[in-house]
């Protein structure tokens, strides 16, 4: 009976799921297509950035010993033009990014000088190094630029380009098959018959998985039939690294997923002490025609259970397959609860909106926390964690898992 089946802790379930996950192979791709991918190699800088000392301001380059004098302007240096050496007692007109001429060691902003008939009158006491961006200040040649496991987003892509790099080794994207179970499930675009509902889990999970770095395979709908469930799960395992189902993992008579996984492969774990998402199931499906096996994650059908299960289980699983620690771990923060809540034997993951105010961070819980109420996820920035049999009173600190991308 289901109720005699012990509930596993979230930690035990995560540990079991991640115990023997090996990172996927690496592949070389163009940097232009590398956004949202995970670096599979450590990249070493082959260039200093910036490659030469240059001016941080539009102004005049000089030697600091010439401070407070009036100097003739003997050259004009724009970004991209090589400078000539500068003699003592001269200054150079220079613009932001322009290379410092030898003989100069500081730059005075143009707003700080006075133009006179005999030259540029300089302010007193200009320090050496003033307004100069030193060669290698950002990146020193030979130093690690980016480490393996780096999630590639805007700044990292800029860093690679700054080295003139056009291709990088990244992890292959995990292929995820998404199977929606249930006779009542209909795809948007089709007419809705009595008793049917539209499939909201598929696009929601597809979006989450894409953001977590996966390649989502074409949609599969699974009827409430044991034979078809087995066939479609087996078929999915042939091409997918991860097979995710929604629905059909509870104790209803039409819940065929767990049995099918057990028959085809191995059901590692079922029922977790979490709310929502209690009937979540984990396992593996061996491939018949290909080598290896696919990971199986069975998410409960209620849309909120699917959403929360996606963040708490699919994200770490993809993080392990992609060997990306920052993807694997959800960042946690402590906020003040703008609500009171109590948890039973299951840890409660409440959908909250975070308000960043002068007094700190407040967590506002959505009013209806039922696992069928997807509205609770729309504005959710975080999951507030109420420990098993724990309680949080209004105004007290509460740990929150931030629903943020790496
Ligand atoms: N007697 C018991 N009944 C239930 C238990 C239990 O312990 N004993 N657990 C409840 C909990 S908690 C959950 S969560 C659900 C999960 O059940 P399943 O995973 O078997 O999911 P289904 O029954 O197939 O569906 C649940 C619910 O979600 C709707 N659904 C399913 N797929 C989709 C979809 N793709 N898009 C939108 N909505 C979907 C489905 O129509 C159901 O309303 O079981 C409880 N029952
Ligand atoms: O575990 Mo369920 O998602 O609470 O309704």
UniProtKB/TrEMBL annotation:
GO terms for biological process: Mo-molybdopterin cofactor biosynthetic process. The keyword Metal-binding applies. PROSITE patterns: MOCF_BIOSYNTHESIS_2 (PS01079). Pfam families: MoCF_biosynth (PF00994), MoeA_C (PF03454), MoeA_N (PF03453). Residues 177-320 form the MoaB/Mog domain. Pathway: Cofactor biosynthesis; molybdopterin biosynthesis. Keywords: Magnesium, Metal-binding, Molybdenum, Molybdenum cofactor biosynthesis, Transferase. GO terms for molecular function: metal ion binding; molybdopterin molybdotransferase activity. It comes from the Bacteria. It catalyses: adenylyl-molybdopterin + molybdate = Mo-molybdopterin + AMP + H(+). The keyword Repressor does not apply. Its EC number is 2.10.1.1. Transmembrane segments: none annotated. GO terms for cellular component: cytosol. Its cofactor is Mg(2+). Catalyzes the insertion of molybdate into adenylated molybdopterin with the concomitant release of AMP. Belongs to the MoeA family. This is Molybdopterin molybdenumtransferase. It comes from Billgrantia gudaonensis. The lineage of its organism: Bacteria, Pseudomonadati, Pseudomonadota, Gammaproteobacteria, Oceanospirillales.
């Amino acid at each position: 009976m289901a109720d005699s089946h012990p509930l596993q802790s979230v930690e035990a379930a995560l540990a079991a799921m991640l115990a023997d996950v090996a990172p996927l192979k690496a592949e070389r791709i163009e940097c232009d297509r590398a956004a949202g991918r995970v670096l599979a190699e450590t990249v070493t800088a082959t260039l200093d950035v910036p490659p030469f000392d240059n001016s941080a301001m539009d102004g005049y380059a000089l030697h600091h010993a010439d401070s407070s004098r009036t100097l003739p302007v003997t050259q004009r240096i724009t970004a991209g033009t090589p400078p000539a050496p500068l003699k003592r007692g001269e200054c150079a007109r220079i613009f932001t990014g322009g290379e410092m001429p030898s003989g100069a060691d500081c730059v005075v902003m143009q707003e700080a000088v006075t133009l006179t008939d005999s030259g540029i009158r300089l302010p007193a006491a200009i320090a050496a190094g003033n307004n100069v961006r030193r060669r290698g200040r950002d990146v020193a040649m030979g130093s690690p630029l980016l480490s393996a496991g780096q999630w590639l987003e805007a700044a990292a892509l800029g860093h690679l380009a700054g080295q003139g790099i056009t291709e990088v080794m990244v992890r292959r994207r995990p292929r995820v098959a998404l199977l929606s179970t249930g006779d009542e499930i209909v795809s948007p675009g089709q007419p809705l018959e009595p008793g049917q509902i539209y499939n909201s889990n598929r696009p929601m999970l597809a979006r989450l998985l894409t953001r977590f770095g996966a390649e989502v395979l074409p949609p599969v709908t699974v009827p409430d039939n044991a034979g078809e469930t087995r066939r479609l799960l087996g078929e999915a395992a042939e091409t997918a690294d991860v097979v995710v189902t929604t629905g059909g993992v509870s104790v209803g008579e039409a819940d065929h997923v767990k049995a099918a996984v057990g028959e085809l492969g191995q059901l590692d774990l079922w029922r977790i002490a979490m709310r929502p998402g209690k009937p979540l199931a984990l396992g593996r499906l061996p491939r018949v025609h290909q080598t290896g096996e696919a990971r199986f994650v069975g998410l409960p059908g209620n849309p909120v259970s699917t959403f929360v299960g996606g963040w708490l289980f699919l994200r770490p699983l993809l993080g392990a397959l992609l060997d990306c620690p920052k993807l694997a771990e959800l960042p946690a923060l402590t906020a003040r609860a703008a609500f009171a809540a109590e948890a039973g034997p299951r840890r409660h993951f409440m959908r909250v909106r975070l308000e960043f105010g002068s007094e700190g961070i407040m967590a506002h819980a959505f009013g209806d926390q039922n696992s069928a109420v997807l509205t609770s996820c729309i504005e959710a920035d975080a999951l507030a964690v109420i420990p098993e049999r724990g309680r949080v009173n209004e105004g007290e600190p509460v740990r929150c898992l931030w629903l943020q991308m790496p």
